[in-house]
């Protein structure tokens, strides 16, 4: 005969199949239980668990959602969801000790899920056990408040991001203008320096040309004067020689 732990494992598998879209599995529960040699009292126990979870899915999911922090119910894996639903059902509706229920759920999780999932399931079921006396209306109010708080937090974050972006643009804009003006100033300074340098070179070259021309002109004048002087002296000398000539020589 199967143990209650084995019965719970089979029920989790049935819930997993149901949650995966195979809702017709309900018609074959008895056959599946017999295949796993679950009979008599254990069979009744298994059927009670399976039908009880299906009948209270909405309220169970609400209690599970109430314990989720920064996590969406839809993101929970099918096998983890099946384990949580079964555990939540036993905590809320059965007389089995809550610590035993949680321990059984964790053992199933170790066989069918990951280590992180085991910790996750433990935290959620522990929260449900501590708050199992809360009515569904109270849980709905709490969830609604949490939803509003999340929306407000998102709005604040969005406003902060928008404010930061605006501030960054405001800070960056003057820097860009200053950067451009600085570059332009440097360019203008370099251009001005280059122009001055060219101007100096040009003036220097012109001065040299002018000096060269003046020098040449002066030399030409001196040469002309010298030639004239020499020419004058030669004329005087010829005249003197001419005067000294005798009539015979003439």
UniProtKB/TrEMBL annotation:
<protein>
    <recommendedName>
        <fullName>Transcription antitermination protein NusB</fullName>
    </recommendedName>
</protein>
<comment type="similarity">
    <text>Belongs to the NusB family.</text>
</comment>
<feature type="domain" description="NusB/RsmB/TIM44">
    <location>
        <begin position="6"/>
        <end position="130"/>
    </location>
</feature>
<keyword id="KW-0804">Transcription</keyword>
<keyword id="KW-0805">Transcription regulation</keyword>
<feature type="compositionally biased region" description="Basic and acidic residues">
    <location>
        <begin position="208"/>
        <end position="222"/>
    </location>
</feature>
<comment type="function">
    <text>Involved in transcription antitermination. Required for transcription of ribosomal RNA (rRNA) genes. Binds specifically to the boxA antiterminator sequence of the ribosomal RNA (rrn) operons.</text>
</comment>
<keyword id="KW-0694">RNA-binding</keyword>
<feature type="compositionally biased region" description="Basic residues">
    <location>
        <begin position="193"/>
        <end position="207"/>
    </location>
</feature>
<dbReference type="InterPro" id="IPR006027">
    <property type="entry name" value="NusB_RsmB_TIM44"/>
</dbReference>
<dbReference type="InterPro" id="IPR035926">
    <property type="entry name" value="NusB-like_sf"/>
</dbReference>
<dbReference type="GO" id="GO:0031564">
    <property type="term" value="P:transcription antitermination"/>
</dbReference>
<dbReference type="Pfam" id="PF01029">
    <property type="entry name" value="NusB"/>
</dbReference>
<dbReference type="GO" id="GO:0005829">
    <property type="term" value="C:cytosol"/>
</dbReference>
<feature type="compositionally biased region" description="Basic and acidic residues">
    <location>
        <begin position="150"/>
        <end position="167"/>
    </location>
</feature>
<dbReference type="GO" id="GO:0003723">
    <property type="term" value="F:RNA binding"/>
</dbReference>
<dbReference type="GO" id="GO:0006353">
    <property type="term" value="P:DNA-templated transcription termination"/>
</dbReference>
<dbReference type="InterPro" id="IPR011605">
    <property type="entry name" value="NusB_fam"/>
</dbReference>
<keyword id="KW-0889">Transcription antitermination</keyword>
<feature type="region of interest" description="Disordered">
    <location>
        <begin position="150"/>
        <end position="250"/>
    </location>
</feature>
């Amino acid at each position: 005969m199967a143990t209650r732990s084995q019965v719970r494992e089979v029920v989790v598998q049935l819930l997993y199949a149901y949650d995966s879209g195979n809702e017709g599995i309900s018609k074959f529960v008895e056959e599946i239980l017999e295949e796993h040699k679950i009979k008599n009292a254990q069979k009744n126990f298994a059927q009670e668990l399976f039908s009880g979870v299906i009948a209270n899915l909405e309220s169970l999911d609400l209690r599970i959602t109430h314990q989720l922090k920064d996590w969406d119910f839809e993101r929970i894996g099918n096998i983890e969801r099946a384990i949580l639903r079964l555990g939540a059902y036993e905590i809320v509706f059965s007389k089995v000790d809550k610590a035993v229920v949680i321990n059984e759920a964790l053992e199933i999780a170790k066989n069918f899920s990951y280590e992180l999932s085991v910790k996750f399931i433990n935290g959620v079921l522990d929260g449900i056990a501590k708050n199992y006396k809360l009515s569904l209306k109270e849980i709905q109010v709490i969830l609604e408040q949490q939803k509003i708080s999340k929306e407000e937090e998102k709005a604040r974050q969005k406003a902060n991001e928008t404010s930061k972006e605006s501030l960054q643009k405001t800070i960056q804009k003057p820097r860009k203008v200053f950067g451009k003006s600085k570059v332009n100033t440097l360019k203008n300074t370099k251009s001005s320096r280059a122009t001055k340098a060219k101007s100096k070179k040009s003036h220097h070259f012109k001065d040299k040309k002018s000096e060269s021309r003046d020098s040449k002109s002066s030399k030409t004048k001196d040469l002309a004067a010298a030639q004239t002087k020499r020419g004058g002296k030669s004329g005087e000398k010829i005249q003197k020689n001419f005067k000294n000539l005798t009539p015979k020589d003439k």
